Amino acid sequence: MPFIGFAKSNYGPAETYKRILDExxxxxxxxxxxxxxxxxxxxxxxxIAETNRGxxxxxxxxxxxxxxxxxxxxxxxxDEFVEDTMEYLSGD
Length: 92
Prior knowledge:
The chain is an alpha+beta fold. Helices cover 33% and strands 41% of the residues.
């Protein structure tokens, strides 16, 4: 089953990406492939990962501390989540 997630982070984009992947591993996800999208002037981004437990898409934004919430969803929900986030990131 795929997952969508919402993260808050008090780190920059590169460290946030690393912490999200580390947290997924801590929760039992084996990340096989991942990619990270963000705009240089926007305080948020998107991490997409292929894992042993299905696809994971996580939208992150700046916050006071690092935290991550995951929800198990249907495949079409992940696709819509990724599409909406990518549109927002590209300014469309």
